[in-house]
Amino acid sequence: MQFWINRWGISLAMGISLSAGVLADGSVVDKVYHPYVEQLEWELEWRAVQAHNAPSSVEARQSTHRVGLGRAVSEFLFAEAYLIGREGSDSAFSVDAW
Questions:
Q1: pTM exceeding the 0.90 threshold for the entire prediction
Q2: What is d(CA 71, CA 73) in angstroms, rounded to the nearest whole number?
Q3: Where in the sequence is the signal peptide annotated (predicted)?
């Protein structure tokens, strides 16, 4: 029994330490959603992530902005739409995806 608890604890510690630096699609995971939907729920969301690259890089500073609007369609389904854009070091803004 003692061996099983120690083995479980070591596995848990390794899993937590390895997942600390995980990237998704080349970018940092900045929000984790909860699975609960409330009736008549609306959501307006704006998130910005700024990346600092090497100073010698052409894209030394780049920001990614996400604007989202969501609504509960039913008590089990929530629909969301996003606009995703980038702002480079030259302060030009472009919409990348929607």
A1: no
A2: 6
A3: 1-24
CB 70 within 8 A of CB 47: no
Q: Note whether 71 and 96 are within 8 A (CB).
A: no
**Residue whose C-alpha is closest to residue 36's, from 78, 80, 82:** 78
Place of tokens 């700024």: 50
Query: E strands of the chain, at which residues?
Result: 42-52, 61-72, 78-87, 93-97
Structural domain boundaries in the chain? 25-97
Answer whether 58's CB lies under 8 Å from 92's CB. Answer: no
